[in-house]
Amino acid sequence: MDVIRETTAALQSIFPQTDIASFLSANANQKRKQLYEFTGLVTGIRLYNKDCNKGGAGIDDLPHLLSEGVPITLETINEEIKKSDELAAIYTSLFLKLSTIDPTTDVKALIKSAKEMDITPEHLRASVVNARQYGKFLRIIECELNQMLKDIEKIIDSFKSCMKKLHILISDRPAVPSNEVYPGFLQLANYWTSFQDEMVFLSVLTSTLNTLQTYFVGRQLKWTKEQMYNFISDKEVIFDEDRKHHDPLSEEYCGGHQCVFPHSSSEEINLNIECEGFCIWSLVRYQGLLVPADIHMGVLLLPPDNKMYAFSTPEAAKEFVMETEKMVNFMKIQVLRSTVVSKQYCTQ
């Protein structure tokens, strides 16, 4: 009832009964325009009343909810990114260990024991793809949330500034001309609409995150992280941030192709590298394994389409330039095959 009474009083203050006849005689477009303005003015008045502790019943504190909600969601995102990166590192390192050429007797026994638990290179490779995809989606949401946080701060500052100006304008004055105060109320309403839009967007991102979590958790391998550590030690697991940075590629490793060297992280992001920045040699050599490339040693620019390829080691780059066409064609086939295998494994 408080909301109805306050809304009615606000509407009557901007739309007296004497104006009803004029409103009814207006055409449809004029009526819509007036109703839109009335809605904004009533919203602005109620927001002002709420700030004065004299009304605003039923209005949620959206700035506070957003200021708390976004960081909490970001914290969850960061935890999930760490989890996906850790699993990707374990899967990749264990895959490489179980795929060793000419394994020793001990490694052969290890491979046999792992196979008995259904820990095979094929399953590990599919799990790397799933973990990398999950991490990619998480980072997209993280980027959106970071931008949202900046936008919210700007809206809050503008909202507070507008509210302060209204307080100065209205303070201790029995009456204020409508042409002076109405623009401020409308601006408050516009800022509030922006808060509402951000709340909807946050809800969408949170829902997407929950869906991704369910999808990823529901499709993790049936063996636990602890079980995998029976076959690999902490020291053997190589995380992305621990991967060795190599010196810039020399001409010997470039095979006559142009090599591009990013000089900053922003420039690195803007490079349109094939295979999402993963090493194409590893993708081909290990039939679909995603190994992060070392961008610091350079990116090869190949004709005729000037496509960019990156590598995890100089040796990988050297082998690639020796059989470029063969590897690129095989990579295309392997990507399709890996996608199918990953989907089949996920449905098990």
UniProtKB/TrEMBL annotation:
Protein family (similarity comment): Belongs to the CFAP206 family.
GO biological process per UniProt: cell projection organization; regulation of cilium beat frequency
Localization terms from the record: Cytoplasm, Cytoskeleton, Cilium axoneme
Chief localisation class: cytoplasm
Family annotation (PANTHER family): CILIA- AND FLAGELLA-ASSOCIATED PROTEIN 206
Identification of the protein by name: Cilia- and flagella-associated protein 206
Keyword Cytoplasm: yes
Role summary: Essential for sperm motility and is involved in the regulation of the beating frequency of motile cilia on the epithelial cells of the respiratory tract. Required for the establishment of radial spokes in sperm flagella.
InterPro entries: FAP206
Keyword set, alphabetical order: Cell projection, Cilium, Cilium biogenesis/degradation, Cytoplasm, Cytoskeleton
GO CC annotation: axoneme; ciliary basal body
